[in-house]
């Protein structure tokens, strides 16, 4: 078993620990009503997108998410949250340096022996979720679980403890054969799950060199559906938009959706799988495809654990 596969399987435990850590961590977390910017690179940026949408859904204030290389440092924010597994990513450190002394900052990292410890005003160290694999899986979802738990209740979103229960099934349940055998995958999400869709596509490209795309779910009809057909998968995170299943079937595609068939049902009580748990399935799919191609999912080509730019 690859290290990536081993790390994927530990996510239920990591999420529970993240929820416990969030309950006792107060220094630096965004406060209700603050205008917040969240930033990161690659996978961390996609988690930032998911958290920003969750925070706004919780009614806690305007929240923007930016790739660190595109961060608008001239904008006024009450707080900046940075996500960086390595603690050494150049663009993230540059953002923290640009706002230092002007805006309170919080960083989430896996390594307490890195420059981010001094670059941010407050740091949440999630070192139990650090990874040996170059490909991020458990740190990213653990960081999101930490921030998600700190928000408290969000309408239509399960508590992290319940998401961890769904994750236990996601790490063991066999993947559908049609999904494994496909030649192309399009990932869709709405609200906070759009960030998960982006991340699923990235995992597939990183680990397996697969042809994947990701879009907001309601944008699917506005072009992306053109790529769907036999042997191609449309994977929806969270709620399935009305009519989308019929659209996929009409063009011969395969639909993957762990969502209720009843759009009027309450997601707090119906059997819908938590979208973060469904992301685990996409991570497992990426590893399975990589291994089937003879690739090493722990060390994908052209990638390193951290991007450190030379001056």
From TrEMBL:
The keyword Isomerase belongs to this UniProt entry's keyword annotation: yes
Domain of life according to the entry: Bacteria
InterPro entries found in the cross-reference section: GlmS/AgaS_SIS, GlmS/FrlB_SIS, SIS_dom, SIS_dom_sf
CDD domains the UniProt entry points to: SIS_GlmS_GlmD_1 (cd05008), SIS_GlmS_GlmD_2 (cd05009)
UniProt keyword list: Isomerase, Repeat
Cross-referenced SUPFAM superfamilies: SIS domain
One Gene Ontology molecular-function label: isomerase activity
Keyword Repeat attributed: yes
Domain SIS: 21-159
Record-given protein name: Sugar isomerase
Origin species: Streptomyces ficellus
